[in-house]
Amino acid sequence: MCMDSYDMSHLEHEALLLVVTSTFGNGDPPENGEVFARQLQAIKMTGETTPDIESVRHISATYLRISVDSSDVPNSGINDMDNINPIGPLSNIRFAVFGLGSSAYPNFCAFGRYLDTMLSELGGERILKVGSGDELCGQEQSFGDWASIAFEVACDVFCISDDLNLKEVMKSATLKPQIWSKDNVKLVPYYGNTIQDICKCLSKGPSRQAIEYKMMNRVPLQDGEIDGRTTVLVELEAINARQTSTFYMPGDHLGVYPENRRELVDDILAHYSDDYNVDQEYSIFVRVNQMDDKNNGTEAEKWIPNEKLAITSLREALTRYMDVTTPPTQQLLTLFAVNATNPSDKARLKQLATDSARYEEWKASCFPNLLEVLNEFRSLRLPPELILTQLPPIQSRFYSISSSPLMSSSARIDLTVAVVKYVTHSGAQHYGVCSNYLNEIKSGHSVYGFIRSAPNFRLPDDRTAPIIMVGPGSGIAPFRGFWQHRSKLIETKREDRNKLSKMTLFFGCRSPSMQLHAKEVQMMVNNGIISQSFIAYSRVSGHSKRYVQDCLKSQSQQIYHELIHERGHFFVCGDVSMAEDVCKTLKFILKDNGIDDPEIALLSLKVFDARYVTTAREMFEALCNHIKYATNKGNLRSAITIFPQRIGKREFRVWNLQLISYAGYENIETDGSGAQTPTPSSQIIGDPMNVEFTQLCERLGWKGKRTKWDVLPLVLSVPDEDPQVFTLPEELVLRVPISHPRCVYMSFHSLNTRQIPFKCFEELDIQWYALPAVSNMMFDVGGLEFPACPFSGWYMVTEIATRDLCDPQRYNILEEVAVRMGLDVRTNSSLWKDLAIVELNIAVLFSYQKANVTIVDHHTAAESFMKHLDNEQRLRGGCPADWVWVVPPISGSLTPVFHQEMLYYELKPSYEYQEPAWRTHEWHITPGAQLSRNSTNGTGTPRKLRFKEIARAVKFTSNLFGKALSKRIKATILYATETGKSELFAKRLAHIFLHAFNVS
């Protein structure tokens, strides 16, 4: 079943779910898989198995893309950890996923991996690691191997392998493919007057409704064919624009359904004898077995119209509907072998059909189309019934739209088309199907296609964000739409030219004569639409080769500044190898300008993805890694660690307010009767802010040394479990002892100047930790909540000296410092608080600098924030800020932020405060109580039964009552496809699983 036809209300009730899916473009879902992906994401967001459809619609395509890019699963086999996933909304499901794709693209099989990860995160049990089939090599073999293993594993998991002769079943299911028979197809001559609706025949689902366009014009973009290459501008116009949705945006694609070359079709038809009228239209019927409700539910044979193509002629089918240029698959070669009469041809075809290595070698060398196969195997006679029902349908070819709907209307579309011609390794001349079709079709003739949205390739909503466009050759196509769109916005006064950002173009070709849209680009530069244009020529006589990568390197400072400081957008369009080289160049530019991790490119923020964790121990290990990286021997580095998101009420939590903080102990006095009374807060040992949390740690079994500077343990919890306590290794916690730079202090609180010793700081034994790492806030992004998302940077001096050490609700040492300094603390008019707090800030700043630990003073921090505020105001029209927190706690009026009006409002993504975990946690066992030995596996962790064990127990119980598992387990197979190949593989998978499961 196709994913876009699946009823999601059935998902939580599935027993076995098998998924076969392709990946579109650079990691996107196929169109008929997008809604399914959004629905899974909505389940994850809400914890509900049937989320409101509005929540599905509001999940951004960008988030899906990020999820796809970051998804991964272990390459090893299934281990015990896969079987003890926390219970989730899809915990009833067992699943396996196979992805199809091309390793020529960087995000190989990304959507398949995304679905595999998502189903696991939602509680499903993965019975087999995600499989992948590479279009470039051995895809059919990979799928066959995976399908066989999936069938065996599924039989074992559901405890039905004992009821089957598995070897015989596998032999029957996988080694003997379903043989097509001419007797199951009937061609009935059609003499009706009904004109076939070509749009309806080509359309594939609601998202692929074909639109009829008229070829309006074709303009050569080069002076004739140069080096065997030619590029043309194709101008199309929708015929029924009012009845059909033709809306598009710059950056979108047009999927074009081509026609096969007339010469190729005629030569294929020449292989048929005069017995067939190749221009006669036929109604095509296929024989199927269906349940007959009128005959006690028994199977009955029925003839039904062919699903994909009901009425057509052989010529029309080969011209418009059938793919005759792609090498036949191994499964198709099996059918060909049956129809070859020469024993040598038959043997060779069988060998190619069964030997994957020979097949791949043959395909790579010849890349044979149907005509070349017929010429190679001269005895091969393919009946029309086979061609009309078994050849794969012709696939659309995608072209970046090279125009803006503002130039005329969305009914008009321009395409920049590079006409493809090449010679195979065997010496045969081949032609690109669609590019040559568009280059040869006459004006006024119809062209069929559909709009495919590309939401990740759009002009940015922020018109002030710089745009960098890299498009060698025909890769310039979408950028023509970009500059036309911007030009029209300015021309119609919808945008102010002075408020628009820079638009820079990097273009490459072999020589000046091959430059595309040269006059239009120059006009846009002259008009100020394009700020700068850089062109690289790679084949100019007497000059060294130069590529767009070289142009990028020459402008590295500009690119770095626009991307990082001005939050610019970087677009690349072209072939995969070029895009990879451009990506490497961009990484080099960012690294050369001090960005350690260009993959993140968020200044120096290091992101640790810990969404894979399932246990508190794994959380602890991830946090230790975070602390070690961020501390960096005092040269602090910003970092963030992201643990799994909240699903319903199930969440991962770090209970500490900060990853590193000091304990606070109440001094308990006992009177003569044994009653205990807490001492006043002034006599608390350590940090009063952490008294409640320290008591919790002690109830959980932790024991501190009861000093002022005891580092608290980490308290971590995972869904459905009580928290666990982990002591941080001492070597991970970098501490800074506080001392003062001067030994004497010149006191001016009286007319008599006198010296006061400054050893009081050493006598107070003050210290603080180097790394501030907030761990109690929640990260909210795109409607997803990450309650465990600790982040760290470095301290501003006033945070330690003023807020932590001097606040009356914290260590409250200000008066003690002032007394030891000899200041008069009896009256406020002596300004002893001001004098002491300044010196304490000096001491902290001096101590951190002396220890080579990163820290910033409040004046520098305030100036930096003002630059940030101005930048955000210029780029985004505002910046939320809380004046109370931004203004430093001392010398506030001396900093620029004090005089700045600020408006606090919420933006997403955001960090938000949340209730401490110990106040909201639902305890399974009272803190301090010991787990019963009988309820654990000996390690203190409640035992979790695996599904296989439960299934075996159920079967054993059934056998005791003399009843076997007679009802077949339901297996649901879903597919998502752009070309139809995933659908074909899904049907083959269904054929295998029908031997033991009830397949739907």
Automatic annotation (TrEMBL):
- The organism's taxonomic lineage, starting at the top: Eukaryota, Metazoa, Ecdysozoa, Arthropoda, Chelicerata
> What cofactor does this chain's UniProt record say it requires?
heme b; FAD; FMN
Establish whether keyword Oxidoreductase is in the entry: yes
- Cite the Flavodoxin-like domain residue spans from the record: 1-151, 971-1000
Where the record annotates domain FAD-binding FR-type, the positions are 208-460
UniProt KW keywords: Calmodulin-binding, FAD, Flavoprotein, FMN, Heme, Iron, Metal-binding, NADP, Oxidoreductase
> What GO molecular function annotation could you give as one example from this UniProt entry?
nitric-oxide synthase activity
Q: Which InterPro entries match?
A: CysJ-like_FAD-binding, FAD-bd_FR_type, Flavdoxin-like, Flavodoxin/NO_synth, Flavoprot_Pyr_Nucl_cyt_Rdtase, Flavoprotein-like_sf, FNR_nucleotide-bd, NADPH_Cyt_P450_Rdtase_alpha
Tell me which domain of life the UniProt entry assigns to the organism this sequence originates from. Answer: Eukaryota
**What EC class does the entry list?**
oxidoreductase
Gene Ontology BP annotations: nitric oxide biosynthetic process
Instruction: Give the enzyme's EC designation.
Output: 1.14.13.39
The family database entries (SUPFAM superfamilies) matched by this protein are listed as: Ferredoxin reductase-like, C-terminal NADP-linked domain, Flavoproteins, Nitric oxide (NO) synthase oxygenase domain, Riboflavin synthase domain-like
Q: Under what name is this protein listed?
A: nitric-oxide synthase (NADPH)
Spell out the PANTHER family in the cross-references.
NITRIC OXIDE SYNTHASE, NITRIC OXIDE SYNTHASE OXYGENASE
Similarity comment text for this entry: Belongs to the NOS family.
